[in-house]
Amino acid sequence: MRTLSSTLLAAQKAASAEPWVTVELADRLGGVARLAWSRLYTGAEADSYHGGALAGDGALLRARLDPSTFNLLYQRVPSPGPSSSFSSWQDFGTVSAVSGMALATQGSAVLLFYVGGNQRDVQVRESTDYGATFGSPVFIFDPLLITKWLAADFSAGGTPCLFFTAESTLYWTKKSGGSWTTPTAWTNSVNVFHGIACRYIGGDWCLVVCGEDAGGAARAWTCIFGDGGAQAAGTWSPLREIIAASANSSVLYRTPGLAKPDILRALLVEKYTGPGAYKRSLASHGLPSSSFQSNQWREPLPLEISLEHGPALMADATYGWMTVPAGVWRAPLSPTTADLSADVLEVEAREGHDGGRARVAVDNSRGVYDVATAPAALRLGAEVSLSLGYRTSAGAEASQGPRFWIEGLERRVERGRSILVIEAVNGWGLLEGWRARRQRTWTAGTKTVYQVLEALLLSAGLEVAMVSGSSALQTLKPAFTVLPGEPLAEAVHRLLAQVPDALRFEGAKGEVVYPQASDPSVYSYGTDHLVLGASDEPHLGVANQVQVYGEGALGEAFRWDQVTAIGNRLVQVVDKNLTTASEVSDRASAELRRLAVLIRQGEATVPVNCGQQLYDLVSLTSPSLGWNGTLFRVMEMETTFHRSQRGAAYRQRLVLGGA
Question: Interhelix angle for 488-496 vs 449-459, to 10°?
Fold first, then answer.
């Protein structure tokens, strides 16, 4: 149960408490701001190697290769915006026809790295006036091999570090004491490079690397070159995979971008060369709480950009920026929001073990929510946040309740009144809408059930936390496969069927809960919190005997009271991940308990408890039903709020399961 203040607890138990409900919108998905990109420039420049950065004074800096002349072209746009011109370029002369370039900035310093016309010489031009003017080229290194990809950034202390690839090796060099150190090869291995990106984040140089492994499979990885943050200075972390395609799939990943404007965000190009060939930019992001070293990335989503060389990515305090030679985009970093609370007529919200939905009806008699005048946050996919509360002796108080995401909008007129209706789903709905693009497999003995669950929810950009967890959740390492096209919700249900734990959604985060008979009651109804109506509904379960067949082992569990009364109701489970007698026995007991908890035992209607959560153990007292502090598990909740001229009706219906 969520923690409530003493004044809110007192108010929700009072017979005459006045409801206080807020409904707020935010253009977020899974707790992360959705970047609404608007294109500021569409030009005729050819798709080619390019780079971008923001100078310390806010100027937008761009560099590109002219593929017709092989000249390096440069652009500086002060105070970039919708009225800016992005079509004028300064010519810096002939450079490599097969190599990229990189821009790094800090304060007034700007470094422009590129490769000379012989396709080997790594060179740099330096500016000390925010990129307005540059000095002459400075030679850094000739690896005697074709140099292809470059990326660079300054450390927080002002040390620039350049990374470049020469054939199948990545090198790094820093500027120290006015000169560049002799380039040193990294300690990782990539067979073929298709692009690199770098940002100094959290005290280290953080890289995204696109390429192919030794088996010819396309990969996008992250890795860290340490500066003493998460990684020891001068050392490399191992490569960690973001996305992969199998060898011979005709898929490549290319030209990544990386930035941390609000959270970690990355871009890359997925290039398919088979029948129906395409080039498509993809965008991914980390979780709100994730660090770069945790390598927690949402499955990349497609962008409406189809180029060989994907966008450069950067950000200032207000906007995210993407640039290609013929395009400039920006997106506000702060999500648009709207507070609908004053106009809310009805709220109906349901949460259960199998999903959750909300319906919100809003008075639109003033036309505030018409298509032409609606808040920007009122759009499909936006987040709906419900806060449930009361007016208390300390003022209006509420507990942050469930979050939902808009699945449908309806505007209609009823009895001469204009109404907006919002239909939304909770985290289970987001999982249901996600379909696996390709097969994902975890082999037995590699990841625990909880670790696989983390990976599954991460695919949809959702976090998971463990409120309480069984031993099996944290030790069982099963073989598990997600099939192409399978809904993520279905995969999560299959995974959790192997353990006695349950998943609920609190805000944008999934929470794992392990219901146990020894759990303490967190709240009491029927004593100082009124019960408006209740029913006692004891039911037989679908099973009173469970047999689990493992690999060479059999386990059983019984509810003998029911077996004696009605005969056995058998459920059999086959799980070849289980190999010992203790494992199959534990699984049988857990499965029997899980099925018992789900048995409907009754329901109760109560004034809204603002802190009630799924799977809480509560006690109920109703002498006529024989309840005297009887324990039940909350298996489903329906919360309703209806506002009328006579006042507001505010109720909660709790579906009760076994303790």
Answer: 170
